[in-house]
Amino acid sequence: MLPNRNTAEDLLKDAEQCNPGAWVSHSKFTAYCAERIAGACADMDGEKAYILGLLHDIGRKFGVKHLCHIYDGYHYMQKLGYDEAAKICLTHSFSIQNIQDYIGQFDIKDDEIRELEEALSAAEYDDYDRLIQLCDSIAGAEGIMKMEDRMADVARRYGSYPQEKWDKNMALKDYFSVKAGKDIYELL
C-alpha cells in the first residue's frame, strides 16, 4: 500500500520540519526523475514512482544518520501501513542487495543490522526498486546530475565507491534507457 501523492508530499513537508536539509530537495529530484522515467515505460506507473521517489529517504526525518535512516524509514512507513514505501526505504541504497554494500556508517545496533539484513535478503526486487536506486544515483540536492558525477561525489564524501556498485548503477541506467526507449537524460 502507498499513500497518495498529496499525503506523500505532506509526509515530506513534516519530515523537513523535523530535520531540514539538502536531503529534502534530493528526494524531490528523485521523485521527479522516477515519475519521468516510469512515465516513458509502458508497464510502469509514473504516479507510483513519484511517491516512492519522494519517500525513499523519509527516515532522515529522525535526524542526521547513515544506515539508521534506512532502518528508521523502513519502520516509519511500516507503522503507517505503507508497505510499498517501506520496501523502497529498505532497498534504495542496495543495488547489490547486500547490507555490506552500504556506503556510510553502520550507526545502528547489531540486532537492527541483522533485522535489516534479513529483510533485505528476503525482498524481491522489482522495477520500482531498481528505478529508485537509479534515480537516487542521479538526483543531487541541486538537480539532476550525471551518474558518474553523483557517484564520484559520494566517493569524495565517504572515501570510496565500490566498483561493483558503480557497475550495477551504470547497468541500471542502461536498463531503463532501453525500457523507456530513450536515454534517461533525454527524458529528464
Counting DSSP E segments of at least 2 residues, the number of strands comes to 0
Strand and helix order: HHHHHHHHHH
Work out the helix count: 10
Largest sheet: none
Mean pLDDT: 96
Tell me the strand percentage band: under 5%
Low-confidence stretches: none
Structure report:
It is a single chain. The protein has helices at 5-18, 22-39, 46-55, 67-79, 83-91, 110-122, 127-136, 147-158, 163-180, 184-187. It is mostly helical. The longest helix has 18 residues, at 22-39. It is globular, with a radius of gyration of 15 Å. The protein starts with a helix and ends with a helix. The mean pLDDT is 96.
Write the SSE topology.
Blueprint: H1 5-18, H2 22-39, H3 46-55, H4 67-79, H5 83-91, H6 110-122, H7 127-136, H8 147-158, H9 163-180, H10 184-187
Helix pairs in contact: 1-3, 2-3, 2-7, 3-5, 4-5, 7-9
Concise account of the structure shown:
By secondary structure, the chain is mainly α. The chain has 10 helices and no strands.
